[in-house]
Amino acid sequence: MSATDTYRDAGVDTAAGDRAVELMKAAVSATHGPEVRGGVGGFAGLFDASALTAYRAPLLATSTDGVGTKIALAQAIDRHDTIGQDLVGMVVDDIVVVGATPLFMTDYIACGRVVPERIASIVTGIARACEATGTALVGGETAEHPGLMAPDDYDVAGAATGVVEADAVLGAERVLDGDVVLALESSGLHSNGFSLVRHILASRGIGLTDHSDDLGGVVAEVLLEPTRLYTAPLLDALGDERSAGAIHSLSHVTGGGIAANLARVLPRGSWVEVDRSTWSPAPVFRALSELAGTSLESSEGTWNLGIGFFAVVDAARASAVAEVLTAGGIPTWAVGTVATSSRDLTGFEQGAKGVDGGAVRLVGSFAG
């Protein structure tokens, strides 16, 4: 080995990695309660599970995900403080679908080159969102992949674990004929469908750093609107005396769009018609559809179009659940009713992601 044949010469800067850890340390530590042992920087994160002894039959819930090609927008304008919230939204909000309370999360960032300030910005965003959802960020890893990834490229993924009582698990088996389907408003595109977004923009010659009158600002800045976090308001609703026990199943509207994700949390043999006239998709969806020269309806299997979550609830307390969630900061409204009567299901989305669930289709026209 010559004097210049070092790990740094090969493209891996361990000192930069250490600097990134120092920059993010305070934000990560802010997510730690007394359950977290060992602090930041260990080989493994430690979480005191003694509290689980208070559960009668605790089930651990786990989820993992990334944020997809939305990262390209952050890279285009060198703004990385919102991607972390997108990651937590994709991972932790999947756990609350079964009624679980999140406990802890870990993250993984692969990059071509460690830029300490960039890595710290990403992880600080993750930590702030973890804090907002009551999730301890107990560990993570940043890996440099020189030669495999371009210097300024990166990808981020995460995994989280939560807990729920076995007899409190939400799901299709709790759903009854006549239950009301509530829609919870999204904050925008969230973290799905960005390959289509980028295709539309590229086909129209619109750059991510361009100003777009159609979108109302610099393209990447507008489209980087972070994913809404649903965990805390949903957990509050599950525990509120006005709505406790009324929520039978939940669905996170992510990849696959509106109908497919709702169908996953409905029992086999049931069906729902989601009434488009109950909401008006946000301007960002309308602008992208107009740029593409397509209808809003054509993207229902890709974008959330303004619905980030569904709650299937007891009909007698549907209004109470909607009031609790709206008061918690998430506008919520009724979009349909579960039925189990026999009917022709032609045109319905039936099950998804390997789940043999219910059937869903969207009907009517969107509100103006």
TrEMBL record:
Domain PurM-like N-terminal: 59-164
Alphabetized GO MF terms: ATP binding; phosphoribosylamine-glycine ligase activity; phosphoribosylformylglycinamidine cyclo-ligase activity
Pathways involved: Purine metabolism; IMP biosynthesis via de novo pathway; 5-amino-1-(5-phospho-D-ribosyl)imidazole from N(2)-formyl-N(1)-(5-phospho-D-ribosyl)glycinamide: step 2/2
Subcellular location: Cytoplasm
One CC-aspect GO term: cytosol
Entry EC number(s): 6.3.3.1
SUPFAM superfamilies hit by this protein: PurM C-terminal domain-like (SSF56042), PurM N-terminal domain-like (SSF55326)
Domain PurM-like C-terminal, first and last residues per copy: 178-341
GO biological process: 'de novo' IMP biosynthetic process; adenine biosynthetic process
Keyword Oxidoreductase listed: no
Catalytic reaction list: 2-formamido-N(1)-(5-O-phospho-beta-D-ribosyl)acetamidine + ATP = 5-amino-1-(5-phospho-beta-D-ribosyl)imidazole + ADP + phosphate + H(+)
Primary location: cytoplasm
Keywords associated with the record: ATP-binding, Cytoplasm, Ligase, Nucleotide-binding, Purine biosynthesis
Enzyme class: ligase
Leader peptide range in chain numbering: none
Pfam families: AIRS, AIRS_C
InterPro entries in alphabetical order: PurM-like_C_dom, PurM-like_C_sf, PurM-like_N, PurM-like_N_sf, PurM_cligase
Coiled coil: none
NCBIfam families listed in its UniProt record: purM
Family, as annotated: Belongs to the AIR synthase family.
Name of the protein: Phosphoribosylformylglycinamidine cyclo-ligase
Organism: Labedella endophytica
